[in-house]
Amino acid sequence: MIHADTLTKTYGMKTAVDAVSFTVRPGMVTGFLGPNGAGKSTTMRMILGLDAPTSGSVTVNGRSYRSSRSPLTEVGALLDAKAMHPGRTARDHLRALAATHGIPRSRVDAVLEITGLSAVARKRVGGFSLGMGQRLGIAAALLGDPGILILDEPVNGLDPEGVLWVRHLTRSLAAEGRTVLLSSHLMSEMAQTADHLIVLGRGRVIADAPVDTIVSAASGAVTRVRSPRIDELARALAAASGDEAMLTRIDHDTAQVAGSTSAEIGDLAARLGLPLHELTPINASLEDAYLALTQDEVEYRSEVSA
Amino acid sequence: MTTSTPTIFQSTPATPYRLTFSGMLRSEWIKLHSLWSTGWLYASVVVISLALGALAPVVVEDAAAASADQILEVVASGATFGILFSQLVVATLGVISMTGEYSTGQIRSTLTAVPTRLRMLGAKATVLIVSSFVVGVLSAAGGAAVAAAIVGARGGTVAFAEPEVLASILWTGFYLAVVAVFSLGIGTLVRNTGGGIATALAALLVLPIAFSLAPVQWMQEASAWLLSNAGMALAQGTGATPTWQLALTVLAWAVGSTLIGAALLRRRDA
User: What is the structure's pLDDT at A284?
Assistant: First the structure.
């Protein structure tokens, strides 16, 4: 359980994280989603006590991370693939971290095995690819068998097989009852991995809800309807639901209806004896939902020159 | 009467693993010796100390005719000649043991495992003290042994296990350990390898020259209290200043830089 309460971080005049409050719960994968510069990494660094909040607070299992008696077994973190000395071997890097908590060598070897790094354990980290660095970072996060995992952009630089592996790993860690907080700016990745989303934009929480809720809120249950008697149907829909039904004509016999479910439209048509040639619920993708949520919050927008 | 308050948030299921200071010491030891640079730098201390130790007997023209006191002095200076070089190497090691963490990003891994920053600094300092002391003593003993062997080969009556020689060897180790911690403090407050090494070397090399050349009376008098001057006098057992005052002086330099570094380490974002 991670709990942030009006967490704020300012750098000079710039506010990186602006009064952010949220709770990350165990047993599910929580996605931390937002464009670059939205404050995801800064928030994660504050959770781990690397950066001190300007105001507000964040606790891990009810306490500040710095006061933990066994930090590595409480939280495992991957902040970036470069948080390691390039001159050390993968194994020595992990051994040095493990030693602080008296974690045995057998566990070091185990996480090397889990992350598929056994063959390069004695190679120096400086020669690692970004993907191998990510795997080593994940190995370090798993060292203490922690109840909470914080992974900042873990699929960055991974090949498709690695991406799949991270997805399975995070899902199974959550299934074991652990708390998993995963950041990404890739919506497609979140759609397949996360159960719950906290969407950040310019340092603020702009959505905090289950993935399904965010998607359906954005999609607003739009249904495509095709009928040779579309005008009569449109009038009937407007009459039946007042002003709630929004109807957009697409073609001479086709319209998109928002505000009514496809079941309601089908029932109405049957009652009035109107023929339907098509009745298709259209779900917005998480991509659409995300873009809708963050369109005003993107800090670095690419300008299209005229 | 005491009442037990139930814990609202039980941390993760009981694990046998705990963050301990002895664990931090082991971790810092692994970090120190798992880098090739450490081995090379310490090895260079020993090699150069032996080489400089061989220069000490040059001052004696006729070893066979030399007095016991003269020979004692030569052997003792065989122990301490190496300091001129080894203090620079140990200073570099002290600086990079912290700045290397910042320049590589390792510091974020380190502080995630050990969020209690001052204890991390304490563990780093302890490991540096022990390893620099051991290397310092070994290299000083080696330098003295080389000097003694040369004097002996030239017909002198060799004195090695004399209190004066042993004191020089031990104070050399002590001084190098202090320089390592002083430089660790510099590295902690500067957080940049180039700037840290430049600062530490300036304190060791430039300050003594600047103070001795200064046309100001008090600066020339104060130059005896500079880190490298006091350390050299301490190891060589020369000068009018009592040993304990010299020892406290060099310690004060290390404590000073470490306290400033520690205060900044606690406050700054990693």
Answer: 65
